[in-house]
Amino acid sequence: MKDILSAAGRDVLARFARTTVLLAFDFDGTLAPIVRDPARAAMRPTTRRLLARVARLYPCVVISGRGRADVLRRVSAIRIRTVIGDHGIEASTAPREFRRKAGRWTRLLRRRLDRWPGVTVEEKPYSVSVHYRNARRKPVARAAVLRAAGSLRSARLIGGKDVVNVVPRGASHKGTALERERIRRRCRTAIYVGDDETDEDVFGGGRTARLLAIRVGARRTSRAGYCIRSQAGIDALLRALIALRAGTAGRPPKS
Q1: Over the stretch 17-37, which tens digit does the pLDDT of each residue have?
Q2: Of 121, 144, 168, at which residue does a domain stop?
Q3: What is the CATH number for 123?
Q4: Residue 92 pLDDT > 80, yes or no?
Q5: Which domain holds residue 228?
Q6: What's the rounded Cα separation, in Å, for the pair 63 and 91?
Q7: For 117, phi and psi rounded to 5 degrees?
Q8: What DSSP element (H or E) covers 102?
Q9: Cβ neighbours of residue 240 under 8 Å, at least 6 residues apart?
Q10: Residue 191, helix vs strand vs coil
Q11: What is the separation, in whole angstroms, between the first and last Cα of the chain?
Q12: Which of 26, 28, 86, 195 is catalytic?
């Protein structure tokens, strides 16, 4: 995995910036630091200012595991073209059955995990996230979460940073959501920045000539070709993207 902010990486970034490119970002762990209480997650002021400038120069979308309404509050006043929530499921017309499943799974998981302090079950429109960040013995709590969630029918489990995400099998994911948005906006290429296992659906789902996949933090098992070293590096990446479009007044180049 190569550093996108190295000399060679910047050449690749510049090549994509010269096309009609769609920029897409995850939220937690990418635009905003991971915090103990997910309700308190927020971008740093410098990141917010830089993202606002980037969004005037490129079409930008956010694709998050959070619900769409939740993310919209956190990126308010920034010219984000589209916010897609619930791991990409909210990008499509999801079957009502997915919402019913999420509600049923939430009730079951809360009953089964009630005796585990520090484990919280978060219901979203079409999925469930089980957080164990505040559990005293994380490995033991994670094993309990996996046992409880693994018994659910028609569920796909996706790990994350101190979280297990439970989504309906066959539902849209971040990769399909990004490709749908790229085509809808008539962009030739896309740059996606993410940090977690749910982002691997994007990293492994596009041709390298059309998708520049950037992971927050290097990881050998990731399918992303490039990385920034830490979440704090998002500001440097945003500055590089601004510099590559300096003087264009927000007009995308010809493809």
Answers
A1: 999 999 999 999 999 999 988
A2: 168
A3: 3.30.70.1020
A4: no
A5: 2-91+172-244
A6: 9
A7: -60, 140
A8: helix 96-113
A9: 5, 10, 13
A10: strand
A11: 27
A12: 26
